Amino acid sequence: MTSFWTGTRVRLRGIEPEDWTGFMRFAVDEERLGDAVQPPRSAEGYRAWAKEQAAAETDGDCFRLAIEALDTGEIVGAVSTNHADPQAGRFEYGVTVGAGDRRKGYAVEAVVMLLRFMFAERRYHKCEARVLDYNQGSLALHHRLGFVEEGRLRDHVFLAGRHHDLVLLGILADEFDRLHPPA
């Protein structure tokens, strides 16, 4: 039997101390995709962060996992759950894939595994995502996964000298199940 966390292209796993180089690469790749440009962090800062993540206990239903490509064994991205509210039955999530590994199906497979866990195993009802309006790749990914635009916070984020809309997206457990039935 294959692990729940292993798909055809990727495996989701805990972050290891040696993953620091991947996360440093993702930070450079996503410098203009996030909601704020941060000052550069040192290599030692990434090493310490990855070591801390590797030793961290899971915070309930909020966690971060590395996305490892099965064909190379290399870390290609990460997924995380945030703001999990079991009483309301909703959570937010985030995904990042390195620039050289985008459009290979890694993000879709990783997100489907993550959502299947949160919906089928943890009994959540809704997943929410927030995407900047100019991030067309992320918006297309979310629509492909079945997320629906639920709102837009106009001129919500200031970045690169101007304001941008923040697009609010959501998918319900039953919508996810119809679009992504278990194998």
From TrEMBL:
* Residue ranges of every copy of the N-acetyltransferase domain listed in the record: 10-174
Q: Which domain of life is it from?
A: Bacteria
Gene3D superfamilies referenced in this protein's UniProt entry, alphabetically: 3.40.630.30
Q: What is this protein called?
A: GNAT family N-acetyltransferase
- Pfam families recorded for this chain? Acetyltransf_3
Q: InterPro entries, per this entry?
A: Acyl_CoA_acyltransferase, GNAT_dom, Ribosomal_N-acetyltransferase
